[in-house]
Amino acid sequence: MPAVLIVDDLISIHEMLEAVIQPTGFATSFATDGEKALALYKAEKFEIVLADIDMKPMDGITLLKRLKLYDPGVVVVIMTAYASTESAVQALKFGAFDYLQKPFRVDELIATLRRGIEFRALQAERASQAGAPAQRGADVESRLIGGGEKITRFKAQVRKLVATRTPVLLLGENGTGKSTVAEILHAASGAPESAFVRIDCALASAEKLRDGLLGTGGSGGSWVQQAKGGTLFLQHLPCLPLDVQEQLVSVLRNNSSSFRLVCSSGEDLERLVEEGRFHEELLYRIASLPLTAPPLRERIEDIPALVRHCASLSVNPHLDPKLIEFTEDALAVMTAYHWPGNVTELFQVVSRIAAATATRVVASHQLPLRLREVKSWPSLDEYLRGQERHYTDQVLQACRGDKTAAAKVLGVAPERLG
Description:
alpha/beta; Rossmann fold; Helicase, Ruva Protein, domain 3; 3 domains; 5-stranded parallel β-sheet; 12 strands; elongated
């Protein structure tokens, strides 16, 4: 029998909720304040917590935060009066599963509890079905290339997410690998036959987005139905029309436990909310686990490894791609370039060169002109300011400390490098 912990400072609310919840097959326990609720949750096993937002001395959002610190997988439903709906929406930002607005209907309450308990059960099932930590780590390592500080930290964050079913928001510039992360999260589900439904909101028409995502009666459209048991990946989320964003909230409430939701955006969604261009509740329903992919210009120490990896995946009719090498001066040029298209642009450049080269060793003169034109690079003064100094250091490292060679790559006199 699933157990529900009810937290409210009014005994009358306890009595009312007990009368309507227990006959539907749930066991109930009660706490009159946040501290007692925390102690009870730590001492006993509960599938879900139903907490009022307006309590003293500890309010519902503070309780939510402390429960999440103790158990990141805890499922919490917040109860709120009409006047404090905005606060309940904010609770979604801190990981609440859902909220109920008083006065709520009994069928709405029971349906929400059942969805929450199903979500908790599926989280546990996903964790048990997923591969061993070493296997999951190997998949992350094979798909996200590099050993620099930023990509290492990013990979550690991805590993923490593979066994969860909580919606994930992937942030970062175009070409930084957000789609790859979505694929990793799906592959780690332990259900390889499940669907991976990828929707680019920037390419689909408004009509198709409405039909595919919304359907009728909040049940979700064809894309949502197809994703059940698997993953729904929404790329370029800000391109969703506002009316679709608003209605998508209801779809997610009704289907939250039936698929894994992963969204991506190259824009700051909180800023878009402030500008009235993105739905606030939708943001907080998808953003409890935001993850930002670092741009390539902030991890240029990974470029040599990325180049080798991409070259090895290419198809060359004359040479074994795994044996193709790039000279130090070619790597230095690529290290100095700013890569506005990030990893995607680098892979396009390297794969084309590796596929077309007739020589096993690729030199800098074989690189595209835009990479070799000094005017397209940041100036040395820009390199020397703040973190830009990192670029100069990396060029010097790529040239093995040879200031003459590094200066040639940067287009400056050797004495400018100190």
